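**Tokenised fold:**
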Amino acid sequence: MASTLICKATQSRVSSVLNRDVKQYGKKYMFDSSEETCWNSDQGEYQWVSLEFPQSVKITEIKLQFQGGFAAKSCRLEGSHMDGEVKISQFYPEDDNSLQISFFIKIIFENSTDFFGRVIVYSLDILGEKTS
């Protein structure tokens, strides 16, 4: 059965934070399960979230919730292994506030619906299984 793969040992990085204000808009807010907080990127064509898990994982599901008007028009999912980074999949989220589940790690948010290229993510969860 799939369960969340994000834990305290999971290292996350983001492309940017709005006005470098990590106290109000930092990456940690994607993982706090609160509808009142979010990660808010700064301006730019491509924004991204990168996750490094403490061990090998098999991802079965990605749960992602944007703020309407600040969603990516398309997303590219990349992974890495001993040979380097590899493109895994492309998907196209809806521009609304709904929790979106994608079956298909670095998630690259391409072509934001915001005029300045900002992306706002209220929640992100990765489900799957730990492998050896």
